[in-house]
Amino acid sequence: MKKENGVTLASVVITVIVIILISSTSIIVGNRLILEAKEQKQQENYQTVLDAVRREAAKASTGGVISPKTYEYIGTKAPIIGRDSDGNPVDAGEDWYLLDQSALEELGIKKVQNTYLANYSLGVVIDVSATEDIAAEINKYVTEEEATPSL
User: In the chain, N or C: fewer CB atoms in 10 Å?
Assistant: First the structure.
């Protein structure tokens, strides 16, 4: 009988399994790296907006004749953030400003895509797109009398 030197079914199956394991590991590691990069970019964007808000607040407080009470901050004042259980609109409060793309550009920020809520007097910024309960997040920074109703 002649000895056959061919590929056996077992060696093909083992090779396929090894290839699947290597490729799935690469995909998992790649996805993890992408998620970490997105989180880092989101944190960098948040810090950029926070720095700009604090600069604007400092400008208002040291503006000479203009006092912080009459200074016009950038953004939409007291934006509607949702509706209560009765369907009535709920705003963020008088000291909160919505910073959309145009407001961010006015602050000198060009490449940030998210929308933020800013309280210039407290020096606080909330990333609206990364926050599920905006009212609860706002209430972390205000007194009970100023609290925003739950949505």
Answer: N
- Is residue 24 included in any domain, yes or no? no
Q: Which range of residues forms the domain containing residue 137?
A: 37-146
Segment 132-147, tens digit of pLDDT: 888 888 888 876 555 5
Question: Could you give the number of structural domains in the chain?
Answer: 1
Reply yes or no on whether the pLDDT at 23 is more than 90.
yes
With CA atoms as reference, report the closest residue to 93 among 145, 130, 21: 145
Q: Name residues whose C-beta falls within 8 Å of residue 99's C-beta, 6 or more positions apart in sequence.
A: 49, 53, 74, 75, 107, 115, 116, 117, 118, 125
Q: Tell me whether residue 18 is in a domain.
A: no
**Taking all residues of the chain, what is their mean pLDDT, rounded to a whole number?**
84
SS3 track for 74-110: CCEECCEEEECCCCCEEECCCCCEEECHHHHHHCCCC
* SS3 at position 117: strand
* Domain-located, residue 111: yes
Single-letter amino acid code for the residue at 29: V
Binned at pLDDT 50, 70 and 90, residue 82 comes out as confident
